[in-house]
């Protein structure tokens, strides 16, 4: 393919916790995608994208990358002059990896060393994640490299800890009553300020303690139960995770979602959690009975991403 597509990603579990060494489970989401293309730049979207790429190429020119991961920045700059832009329908500020897909597309096209995601070893994944972190930090000030890695690999990835990541298989989808779904908060969120709030909170010893002893425990238990398709312990821990986030991630929860979040906890009809850094964009929902949850969440735009 001349123009490979790079899909969005969804952090099912591990938002913020991964910064403090929790596990994470991240999956590609093919509803949104982006690809590098050439054009005459005769509309605003293409023009803006081309200008953004030019600024980014200056950042890349200054970046010191390991020799195995070096990019052909001269070729990238030449292509920008020829009208290169990133044609994407991935919404920005929605927690689904708009900058991750862009970084993955640039890396795939301009990396001197070509790789096949299917055959990448666990050690190489670790190195790739580190390099992607450097490449994406231009957009957020700091980056784990996780988003571009998922977009590049186009496979579900289990983050075991800060050091180790591996490919993983999700349980087979079934047409059951249960579902994982997205709720559109209707507003965009900015990753930088949200991460700033989180780091401020981390200065508080009580918050650090509850994050490590409760949030990370519930988060890891959810991942383990979900991958085993063990739904009773999954929903038990999912509720604890949702309660914890409702109490401790208040600034990250969009205001118009507060009541719906509480309604889910009070009724046990569904549980909500952040999708990415929060502040806006999507919120993730988990339910044993999607029909019931859908009625209770009337007025919100929803998209089912997984059935069980």
From TrEMBL:
Keywords per UniProt: ATP-binding, Cytoplasm, Kinase, Lipid biosynthesis, Lipid metabolism, Magnesium, Nucleotide-binding, Transferase
The name this protein goes by in its record: Mevalonate kinase
PANTHER family linked to this entry: MEVALONATE KINASE
Pathway as given in its UniProt record: Isoprenoid biosynthesis; isopentenyl diphosphate biosynthesis via mevalonate pathway; isopentenyl diphosphate from (R)-mevalonate: step 1/3
Species in which this protein is naturally found: Epilithonimonas hungarica
GO biological process, one term: isopentenyl diphosphate biosynthetic process, mevalonate pathway
Pfam families from the UniProt entry: GHMP_kinases_C (PF08544), GHMP_kinases_N (PF00288)
Lineage of source species: Bacteria, Pseudomonadati, Bacteroidota, Flavobacteriia, Flavobacteriales
Annotated ranges, domain GHMP kinase C-terminal: 223-302
Cellular-component GO terms for this entry: cytosol
The UniProt record lists the keyword NADP: no
GO molecular function annotations of the record: ATP binding; mevalonate kinase activity
Ranges where the GHMP kinase N-terminal domain occurs: 84-153
């Amino acid at each position: 393919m001349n123009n490979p597509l790079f899909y969005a990603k969804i952090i099912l579990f591990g938002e913020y916790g991964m910064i403090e060494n929790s596990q994470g489970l991240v999956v590609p989401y093919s509803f949104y995608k982006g690809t590098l293309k050439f054009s005459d730049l005769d509309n605003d979207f293409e023009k803006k994208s081309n200008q953004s790429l030019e600024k980014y190429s200056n950042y890349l020119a200054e970046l010191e990358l390991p020799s195995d991961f070096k990019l052909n920045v001269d070729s990238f700059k030449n292509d920008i002059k020829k009208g290169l832009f990133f044609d994407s329908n991935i919404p920005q500020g929605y927690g689904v990896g708009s900058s991750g897909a862009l970084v993955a597309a640039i890396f795939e096209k301009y990396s001197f060393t070509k790789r096949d995601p299917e055959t990448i070893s666990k050690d190489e994944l670790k190195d790739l994640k580190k390099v992607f972190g450097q490449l994406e930090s231009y957009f957020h000030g700091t980056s784990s490299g996780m988003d571009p890695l998922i977009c590049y690999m186009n496979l579900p990835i289990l983050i075991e800890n800060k050091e180790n990541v591996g490919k993983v298989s999700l349980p087979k989808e079934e047409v059951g009553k249960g579902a994982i779904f997205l709720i559109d908060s209707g507003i965009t969120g900015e990753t930088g300020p949200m991460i700033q709030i989180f780091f401020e909170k981390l200065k508080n010893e009580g918050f650090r303690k509850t994050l490590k002893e409760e949030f990370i425990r519930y988060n890891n238990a959810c991942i383990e139960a979900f991958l085993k398709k063990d739904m009773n312990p999954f929903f038990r821990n999912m509720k604890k995770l949702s309660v914890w986030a409702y109490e401790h991630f208040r600034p990250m929860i969009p205001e118009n979602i507060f009541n719906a979040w509480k309604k889910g906890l009070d009724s046990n009809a569904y549980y909500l959690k952040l999708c990415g850094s929060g502040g806006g964009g999507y919120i993730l929902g988990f339910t044993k009975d999607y029909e019931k949850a859908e009625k209770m969440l009337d007025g919100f735009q929803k998209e089912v991403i997984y059935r069980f």
